[in-house]
Amino acid sequence: MKAAVLHRYDETLSSDTFVHYEDVPDPRIEKPTDVILRVGGAGVCRTDLHIVEGIWRSKVDVQLPYIMGHENAGWVEEVGPAVEGFAVGDAVICHPLVTSGHCLACRRGDDMHATDSQFPGVNANGGYADYLRTGQRSLIKLPAGLAPKDVAPYTDAGLTAYRAAKKASRHLLPGQFVTVIGAGGLGHIGIQVLAALCAAEIIAVDRSDTGLALAKECGAHHQIRADGEEVENVMALTGGRGAEAVIDFVGEGEAVAKGLAMTANAGFYYIVGYGGRIEMPTLDMITSEKTIVGNLVGTYPELVELMALADRGLVHLATREYRLKDANQALHDLHHGRIRGRAVLIP
Fold first, then answer.
1. What Pfam families has UniProt attached to this entry (predicted)?
2. What is the C-alpha separation between 53 and 189, in angstroms, rounded?
3. Could you give the CA distance from residue 20 to residue 305 in angstroms, rounded to a whole number?
C-alpha cells in the first residue's frame, strides 16, 4: 500500500519534506479482535506537527520510520475471527485509542487512561495510508448521511473539543459567559458544541480575520481579536467579572496567562492546547478559587454523542481536502496557518 511515512524528526519544522510518500507492507490481522480499515479520510492535526518536531519522544515509545495519522474514518476491509457486529464494507469512524477492554479504566469507559492500549498515529502506525489496523472496540458505525472523509477529524479534534465544551456546559447558565481562545480546527467545533449544549453567551478570541469569521458562522455571539487587549475586551463584555468558563485551544505563548486572567473568580479554565506552561501564585489560586481542568481527547460514548450532533446538523466541520501524496503540503499549510478549519488526507 501507499503511505506518507515519517523517517526523521525536524525540531525546527524547516524542511520541505516532513514525510515520504512510498510503498509499505499492508497491515495484517494480528489479534482476533483486529479490524483492517480502508482509509476514507485521515485528519491532519497540530499534534502531527508536534510529532514531527519530536515533542512526543519523551511520552511514547515509537521507532522511526512510522506512519502518523490519529484521526481516521473509512470502510471495514477485513475482520478478525472474534469480531462481531461489523462486516466488510461498513462505513465507520475510529475512536483514536485501541484498547483491550479489560483494565479498570476501560471498564469505567475511560479509554484515554487505559493501561493496555495503542494510539495509532502516535505510538503505532496510523492512517496516513491506504489501510489501517485498528480494533473492534474502537469502531462506531456512521449514520448514512455522514461520509468518512467529512468526519475523520472528529475523532480527535472534534472529540477533544466536545469533551471540553461538554464539561463547561454542565455548569454554564443563561446570562453567563464562556470564552473560547482559538477558533481554528478545534475551536470552531467547540463553539458549535457550546451553542448546542448550553445557553451561555459565547466569546471567541482569535488573532486572524479568518478565525473570527468562522467563529461567527459557528455561533459565537461576540468576536474579539487577539491584539494585546483581548483580556480588557473580555472583561468589558462581561461587566468586569470575566467569563465563568474559558476554553483554551491554544495553550502556548501568552494564551495561558491571558486565559487565566479572563476567567472569573470561581470560574473554570479548561486547557486543551499545549506547549506552554501554567503558572499562578498560590495566593491568587486561593483567593480567586479558579479551577484548572485538563482535557485529553474523549471517551467512546462522547464520540457517539458527537456523531449524533453531526448527523442532526448541529455541528459541522470546515475541511480542506488533500490527496495522501500531498501530505507534506497539508502539513506545511497547517504549520503556516493557511487552513480554515481542518485538513483531511484522502488516499
1. ADH_N, ADH_zinc_N
2. 26
3. 36
Buried b or exposed e, range 259-270, using 16+ CB within 10 angstroms: bbbbbbeebbbb
Q: Is the pTM of this model over 0.90?
A: yes
Torsion of CA 197, 211, 126, 156, to 10 degrees: -20
Of 294, 311, 332, which one is at a domain's C-terminal end? 294
pLDDT in tens, 8-42: 999 999 999 999 999 999 999 999 999 999 999 99
CA distance 266 to 269: 10
* Letter string b/e over residues 49-82, b meaning 16 or more CB atoms within 10 A of that residue's CB: bebbbeebeeeeebeeebbbbbbbbbebbbbbee
* Count of domains forming the chain: 2
Check whether residue 54 and residue 144 sit in a common domain: yes
Cell of 96: 483514536
Name 225's bridge partners.
206
CA distance 25 to 23: 7
What is the C-alpha separation between 226 and 240, in angstroms, rounded?
18
Longest dimension (CA), the chain: 61
Q: What range defines the domain where residue 284 resides?
A: 160-294
